[in-house]
């Protein structure tokens, strides 16, 4: 069980063209949720810490732009965490566009050992095409100013890069730039948005139009494949790229790190500013609302009351809910298991499990298939010889990162015997 917490929901100081999240607020009339109230904040923190099944409790704060909640909000949140920790270890991560960071914020991050995730799409000429502020000006300079402050205060940060129409032809330029910034943990997110939007996974539109900033399917594999070849030869063991590490973990029998490629949707919930809980960040639609944290809190404190349970209205005592542990991403997981014939017969099914259901927008005999299928296959074709070698190394009690020294041999073999 994990929660992504949205303290300001759809509020953001940027106006990124490709944002998948803010349009949900516009379409559903939810742009005015405001900042999370003290009541919602405390109700969630108390219950999340108490019901978290492990001794480590991870809080992930996201937006919109979460720093728009203000420093006092986070001071209050961290104080409540300390108050109710009860011996558990609390860790915080904030995903931010970094444009609002100043010395005061850095002091707070340093004091509470907050890990920062910074959204950046590469050098200025690539980043600024789609990541603009409300005045339609590029945000890159402000992002870099924020990163420099994090470095000044020695605060660790990761990077999240959206692969889109502006940067997909420049994989190594983007990768080298992120390295120069000092990022040692990178995530890459593939961008596709359509008209109509995929909002109901039971009813996929038979036809759609891809928005201009989106990737083509194959471009994902080309971009990530180029970075993989560079990473495996030079940087494995020094730089973590989440998608690569997830696939390595999968073939070594330890499961995926990335929910996109898991065989079911894990319970990665979203808490909105008004207390609403959804099954996933990609499914903030009315159909996938599970409950409200205040209803859960009232049910726990006052006995049985009617409240929404996994999106269904409770009609009696047996159906009411008084614990966030009872929440399940059951509808999304059910969709995840519905695979088209191509997926069922695919050699790479064990690696991608059909991909994220949000991206399953291509219909095949009534069953949806990932838009990025061709790109995934392109990447997996490049990676599999190296993944097989890593499995061999681990089976022979050699750490898989030793593959770096074997890369020239693998490349020579592939040239002689191309796949």
Question: Can you characterise this structure?
Answer:
- With 419 residues, the chain is an alpha/beta fold.
- The chain has 15 helices and 16 strands.
- The chain has helices spanning 22-27, 38-51, 71-84, 103-111, 124-127, 140-152, 171-181, 217-234, 242-251, 293-302, 330-336, 341-344, 349-352, 373-395, 407-416, and strands spanning 2-5, 56-61, 89-96, 115-119, 157-163, 185-190, 194-195, 209-210, 240-241, 268-271, 276-278, 289-292, 308-309, 312-313, 360-364, 367-370.
- The strands form 4 sheets. A 10-stranded mixed beta sheet has the order 9-6-5-4-3-2-1-10-11-12.
- Helix 2 (38-51) packs parallel to helix 3 (71-84) and helix 8 (217-234) packs parallel to helix 14.
- The two termini are 40 Å apart.
- Residues 304-309 and 313-319 have low confidence and may be disordered.
What's the short story on this structure?
With 419 residues, the protein is an alpha/beta fold. Helices cover 37% and strands 16% of the residues. Strands 9-6-5-4-3-2-1-10-11-12 form a ten-stranded mixed beta sheet. A two-stranded antiparallel sheet has the order 7-8. Strands 13-14 form a two-stranded antiparallel sheet.
């Amino acid at each position: 069980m994990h929660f992504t917490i949205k303290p300001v929901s759809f509020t953001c100081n940027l106006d990124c063209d490709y944002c998948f999240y803010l349009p949900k607020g516009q379409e559903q009339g939810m742009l005015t949720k405001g900042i999370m109230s003290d009541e919602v904040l405390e109700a969630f923190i108390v219950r999340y810490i108490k019901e978290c099944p492990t001794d480590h409790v991870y809080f992930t704060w996201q937006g919109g732009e979460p720093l728009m909640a203000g420093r006092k909000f986070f001071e209050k949140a961290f104080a409540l965490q300390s108050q109710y920790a009860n011996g558990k270890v609390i860790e915080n991560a904030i995903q931010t566009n970094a444009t609002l960071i100043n010395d005061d914020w850095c002091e707070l991050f340093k004091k509470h050992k907050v890990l920062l995730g910074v959204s950046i799409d590469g050098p200025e000429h690539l980043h600024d095409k789609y990541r603009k502020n409300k005045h339609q000006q590029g945000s890159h300079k402000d992002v870099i100013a924020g990163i420099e402050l994090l470095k000044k205060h020695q605060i660790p940060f990761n990077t999240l890069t959206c692969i889109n129409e502006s940067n997909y032809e420049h994989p190594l330029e983007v990768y080298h730039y992120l390295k120069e910034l000092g990022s040692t943990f990178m995530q890459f997110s593939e961008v596709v948005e359509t008209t109509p939007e995929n909002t109901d996974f039971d009813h996929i539109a038979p036809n759609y139009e891809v928005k201009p900033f989106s990737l083509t399917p194959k471009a994902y594999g080309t971009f990530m494949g180029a970075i993989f070849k560079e990473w495996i030869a030079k940087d494995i063991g020094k730089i973590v790229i989440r998608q690569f590490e997830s696939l390595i973990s999968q073939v070594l029998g330890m499961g995926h790190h990335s929910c996109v490629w898991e065989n079911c949707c894990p319970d990665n919930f979203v808490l909105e500013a008004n207390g609403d809980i959804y099954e996933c960040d990609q499914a903030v639609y009315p159909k996938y609302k599970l409950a409200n944290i205040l209803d859960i809190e009232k049910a726990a404190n006052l006995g049985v009351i009617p409240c929404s349970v996994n999106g269904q209205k409770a009609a009696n005592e047996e159906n009411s809910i008084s614990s966030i542990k009872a929440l399940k991403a059951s509808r999304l997981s059910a969709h995840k298991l519905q695979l088209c014939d191509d997926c069922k017969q695919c050699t790479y099914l064990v690696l991608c499990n059909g991909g994220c259901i949000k991206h399953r927008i291509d219909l095949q005999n009534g069953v949806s298939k990932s838009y990025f299928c061709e790109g995934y296959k392109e990447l997996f074709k490049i990676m599999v010889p190296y993944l097989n070698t890593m499995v061999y190394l681990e089976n022979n009690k050699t750490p898989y990162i030793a593959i770096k020294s074997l890369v020239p041999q693998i490349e020579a073999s592939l040239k002689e015997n191309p796949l």
